[in-house]
Amino acid sequence: QRWGCGALRNLTRKKKCWKHVLDTECIKVVNRAMRMYTADIHVQQWGCAVLQSLAIDEFNRERIRELGGVEGVLRAMQEHLHDVGVQRGGCRALLNLAFTQGYG
Asked: Is 61 exposed, middle or buried, given 0-12, 13-18 or 19+ CB atoms closer than 10 A?
């Protein structure tokens, strides 16, 4: 799970890869991994990074919200209060998830 989340993090950094990643139900997979491996800092950090990257797009933001991504990010941040990587990734993901068209 750790390496899978890390690979998805790398792929989602480039917008041109999103279609392929999203075709694999990436958001569901990342949410599930973050729920199942709450103690694994890397899964949480890289999972937040994946959601952060995908949440740049309005459609993806809505999908992430529908699938419980916000709750997953908050859970990761609560579970790993003293890990700067999880906190940074979580804040960045929440920032992108909070963005709404028409504001900014």
From this structure: buried
Return the pLDDT at 24: 57
The answer to the question of residue 92 being in a domain is: yes
Domain of residue 35 covers 2-98
Q: 70 vs 12, 16, 17, 23, 27, CA distance in Å?
A: 18, 24, 23, 21, 12
Query: In which residue are the tokens 């899978």 written?
Result: 4
Contact 74, 38 (CB under 8 A): no
Compute CA distances 55 → 1, 20, 62, 81, 83, whole Å: 21, 16, 8, 23, 22
For residue 55, the tally of other CB atoms under 10 A from its CB is 27
| Domain presence at residue 60 | yes
Query: Which amino acid appears at position 95 of this protein?
Result: L
pTM over 0.85: no
